[in-house]
Amino acid sequence: MSRIVKCGLIQCALPLHEGEGSVAEIKDAMTQKHLGLIDKAGKKGVQILCLQEIFNTPYFCPSQDSKWYVTAEPVPGPTTELLSKYAKKYKMVIVAPMYEREMAGVYYNTSAVLDADGKYLGKFRKIHIPQVAGFWEKFFFKPGNLGYPVFETRYAKVGVYICYDRHFPEGARLFGLHGAEIVFNPSATVAGLSQHLWKLEQPAHAVANGYFMGCINRVGTERPWNIGKFYGHSYFVNPRGEILAEGSEDKDELVTADLDLDKITQVRDTWQFYRDRRPETYEDIVKLLP
């Protein structure tokens, strides 16, 4: 019998913008909006659900304003405790990207993974941190230091790569080598330079590594920064690089797809990329080259 897992992605616009409430109120409004969509996913029978990058805050990185530091919290912490109740209620794995405070002055762009019984399994910290116009992430996030973990959930082996990480194939390969069956990439990506890459890189990772990917992008324009429109188009892609389901470009949406995990073996038995790898020839990758 096929191992079919119903998975979901939530893409969501900011309900309350800067100037319309306090930082705490903005965060609470985004959290509450997501809880309604999580309920919707649970009632649809979603077994693994992933939220978008720093799901319960704006994408505040254009600001370089330290007031957003207060939205960071321990992981595990209050938000994981809240979401664990939903995970347990719906027997649903939840991948929850959020702003993590490890200690005073040390913050990470992190994703927690909660199992279907509500148990906290661990976290991934975003490895690659951009510092380019409109995306001043080094002001807010320290580079991740937990490697490329794969979490053994009730339904599948899950990895998480966050936004800018997707431009780096080395980590995508490591998830495969660590046994991932589904890799999620929660993102905050606006129309412009990288938009044409949105459906190139991640299907390529799925094909090269023989696993499924769930790719999430928020929607809408966030004031006052207006760095561009978050264009949604969240999607699932299979190990053959085929898009299974896709969201719209401009509305809050739960995107779902049934992933047949047995196809991983079928694809890998056809394309023997893991058999034919030559890691002994790749030494230059880990040298300090330009």
How would you briefly describe this protein structure?
This protein is of the alpha/beta class. It is 22% helix and 27% strand. Strand 6 and strand 7 form a beta hairpin.
Explain what this protein looks like in three dimensions:
By secondary structure, this protein is of the alpha/beta class. The chain has one domain (4-278): 4-Layer Sandwich (Nitrilase/N-carbamoyl-D-aminoacid amidohydrolase). 22% of the residues lie in helices and 27% in strands. It contains 6 helices and 16 strands. The radius of gyration is 18 Å and the shape is globular. The N and C termini lie far apart (49 Å).
Taken in chain order, the helices and strands follow as EHEHEEEEEEEHEHEEEEEEHH
Shape: globular
- Span of the ends, CA to CA: 49 Å
Q: Based on the structure given, which CATH architecture is correct? A: 4-Layer Sandwich
CATH superfamily placement? Carbon-nitrogen hydrolase
Tally of individual helices: 6
Q: In percent terms, what proportion of residues is strand?
A: 25-35%
Oligomer description: single chain
Whole-number total of structural domains: 1
CATH topology: Nitrilase/N-carbamoyl-D-aminoacid amidohydrolase
Helix content: 10-25%
Rounded to an integer in angstroms, the radius of gyration calculated over CA atoms is 18 Å
Uncertain stretches: none
The spatial strand order of the largest sheet comes to 5-4-3-2-1-16
Characterize the largest beta sheet: strand count, sense, and whether it forms a barrel: 6 strands, mixed
Any idea of the CATH class?
Alpha Beta
| Main structural class | alpha/beta
Number of strands: 16
**Kindly state the mean pLDDT as a whole number?**
96
